[in-house]
Amino acid sequence: MTTMMKVLTAGLVLGAAAMGGCKSGCCGECQTPAAGDVKATEAKAAGPVNSVCAIENEDPVDESVTVAWRGKTVGFCCPGCIKEWAKLSDSQKDAAVAKAISLSTKK
After folding, report:
1. CA atoms within 13 A on the CB side of 96
2. Where are the domains of the chain?
3. Strand-pair partners of 69
4. Cα(80)–Cα(59) distance, rounded to whole angstroms?
5. Of the candidates 31, 99, 103, the residue with the CA atom closest to the CA atom of residue 64
């Protein structure tokens, strides 16, 4: 790799980090699956598994507000609910998804 290419690549990585473009897939904030995370990418393409918010079960999902969770795309009504989601333990997230899916099929 040439020096110029290295500089450009480093600039792109730093620019993405500065813009909050996390590529780790761990925080849910950027909603970008980690590179090579085929399951998360496929889940994102399939759309949310729920039609009611996983946090505010009375509210419909905004399909542009999602996170990948255990190979599924989970939908939320607003970005604030993603912040609440991030505070949950894994078992609480599992329960929230199960409940949202259950309520989605009843609507």
Report:
1. 23
2. 3-106
3. 72
4. 13
5. 31
